[in-house]
């Protein structure tokens, strides 16, 4: 199994890198924000210990090659503004799920639009995935647009799959195949 704890990717404005113990405060600020957690299946974080524990768990899972979560560090000022993740890896079927979150102060500036192609490229190339899935709350317009912009195709609609803040919530299931991604890349390259 390939280890992911040394993976670093870069884009024009961002460094995508593993989280370290020193990121706990910034991570807590993101995941304790009810606006960020609005469509999540777990409540906003209520203590810094949650951040510390997640960083430790991530390190172990990434070293074992079971999971990939990268922090999004803004190059300009070094601030940690979000995370993006490939999880629920299924190596025999070469499949994973994608997830992401940004601090509200960084929304609507195209950061996730910039980060996702780097993560997706890594998934299809270095990790040799064939399929990446996204489970999106259909009410989450920003997330829907983010994933559709990368070429994900809506494949299904699962009713009342989650309970989000006490309310039954649906899933729009999206997926991107390696062949879809390669075709998009060829189209861009040909102009
Ligand atoms: C999803 C998320 C990462 C998007 O980040 P972002 O930087 O704001 O994304 P962008 O600025 O690139 O916006 C994405 C698109 O959504 C649109 N958008 C953003 N907020 C919107 C809103 N409230 N209503 C309608 N459209 C919205 C933008 O105009 C943009 O459209 P475009 O691609 O056609 O230009 C961010 O909203 C977030 O962290 N949400 C909380 C966590 C979350 O829901 N994660 C996903 C779980 S599946």
From TrEMBL:
Residues 14-180 form the N-acetyltransferase domain. Pfam families: Acetyltransf_3. One of its GO terms (molecular function) is protein-N-terminal-alanine acetyltransferase activity. GO terms for cellular component: cytoplasm. Keywords: Transferase. PANTHER family: RIBOSOMAL-PROTEIN-SERINE ACETYLTRANSFERASE. This is Acetyltransferase family protein. The lineage of its organism: Bacteria, Pseudomonadati, Pseudomonadota, Gammaproteobacteria, Lysobacterales.
């Amino acid at each position: 199994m390939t280890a992911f704890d040394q993976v670093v990717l870069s884009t024009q404005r961002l460094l995508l890198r593993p989280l370290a113990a020193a990121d706990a405060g910034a991570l807590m600020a993101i995941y304790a924000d009810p606006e960020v957690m609005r469509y999540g299946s777990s409540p906003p974080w209520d203590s810094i210990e949650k951040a510390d524990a997640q960083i430790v768990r991530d390190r172990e899972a990434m070293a074992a090659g079971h999971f990939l979560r990268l922090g999004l560090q803004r190059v300009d000022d070094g601030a940690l503004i979000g995370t993006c993740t490939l999880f629920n890896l299924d190596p025999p079927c070469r499949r994973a799920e994608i997830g992401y979150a940004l601090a509200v102060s960084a929304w609507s500036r195209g950061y996730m639009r910039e980060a996702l192609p780097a993560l997706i490229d890594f998934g299809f190339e270095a990790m040799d995935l064939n399929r990446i899935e996204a489970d999106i709350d259909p009410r989450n317009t920003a997330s829907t647009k983010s994933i559709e912009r990368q070429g994900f195709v809506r494949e299904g609609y699962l009713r009342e799959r989650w309970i989000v803040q006490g309310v039954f919530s649906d899933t729009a299931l999206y997926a991107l195949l390696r062949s879809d991604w390669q075709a998009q890349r060829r189209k861009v390259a040909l102009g």
